[in-house]
Amino acid sequence: MNIENTKAQMRKGVLEFCILSVLKEKDAYTSEILDTLKNAKLLVVEGTIYPLLTRLKNDGLLNYRWEESTSGPPRKYYGLTEIGQTFLKELDGTWTELSDAVNLITNQK
């Protein structure tokens, strides 16, 4: 069994939740989202995040706007829609239940 594959699958399973959580407080552009994930030790590459952001937008969970940048081309800022905020609240509750259950099971002696 390949442990790296299993670890990658676990990360992919929570990536959507983490991206929506990053955008909960304020809109952000892709590099900011990637930096936040990286700082939390959740390493994600651009080739993974762009299709996911597009899917979340197409699902109505995110919207975006273009903003001029002082250091380069315009930046696409992503933000949660109303549906995205509701979806995130549901995911948050599910995560809490799942996390509590996993902690209960894995911390048994």
From TrEMBL:
InterPro entries: Metal_resp_DNA-bind_regulator, Tscrpt_reg_PadR_N, WH-like_DNA-bd_sf, WH_DNA-bd_sf. It comes from the Bacteria. Transmembrane segments: none annotated. Residues 19-90 form the Transcription regulator PadR N-terminal domain. It holds the Pfam family PadR. Gene3D superfamilies: Winged helix-like DNA-binding domain superfamily/Winged helix DNA-binding domain. This is PadR family transcriptional regulator.
